[in-house]
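Tokens in:
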């Protein structure tokens, strides 16, 4: 039996919260599962029965995890980006991942385990790449002033910029 569905997998270092984190994440993302958890036996070094390592799948992406202790906490240097189809998806992932965590700026949120996520509507990518430079700039400026990204506010900023520069 193969434990890996792909050759490259993120491996996350937890401070003894791997099982709790895996349950939290698989409860949020569709098409998710806890694939396996390895527990310490009598040989140690951890407490017999406690989780040593494991794997879980979030919307088809397999993650490996270890309970390595407090030596290496998560930082924003590594984050996971969730591209959302619409505002309701943005709100769902933002609210779910921020529960017990910390909201940041520009669509970033740190969950209760300290892992950083970027919750990004696909519309943001379209607006900041708009071929009309004023629209792109206005959408970018609007995004920079947000915590949770709000699609309607991005579109309103882009539309206002376009109207202000329109001839006539």
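Residues out:
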């Amino acid at each position: 039996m193969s434990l890996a569905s792909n050759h490259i997998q993120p491996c996350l270092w937890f401070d003894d919260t791997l099982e709790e984190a895996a349950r939290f994440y698989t409860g949020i993302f569709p098409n998710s599962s806890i694939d396996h958890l390895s527990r310490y036996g009598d040989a140690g070094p951890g407490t017999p029965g406690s989780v040593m390592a494991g794997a879980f799948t979030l919307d088809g992406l397999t993650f490996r995890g270890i309970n390595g202790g407090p030596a290496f906490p998560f930082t924003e240097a590594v984050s996971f980006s969730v591209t959302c189809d619409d505002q309701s998806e943005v709100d769902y992932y933002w609210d779910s991942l921020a529960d017990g965590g910390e909201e940041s700026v520009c669509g970033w949120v740190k969950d209760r385990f300290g892992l950083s996520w970027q919750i990004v509507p696909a519309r943001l990518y379209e607006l900041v790449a708009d071929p009309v430079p004023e629209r792109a700039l206005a959408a970018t400026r609007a995004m920079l002033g947000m915590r949770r990204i709000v699609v309607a506010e991005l579109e309103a900023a882009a539309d206002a910029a376009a109207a202000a520069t329109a001839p006539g």
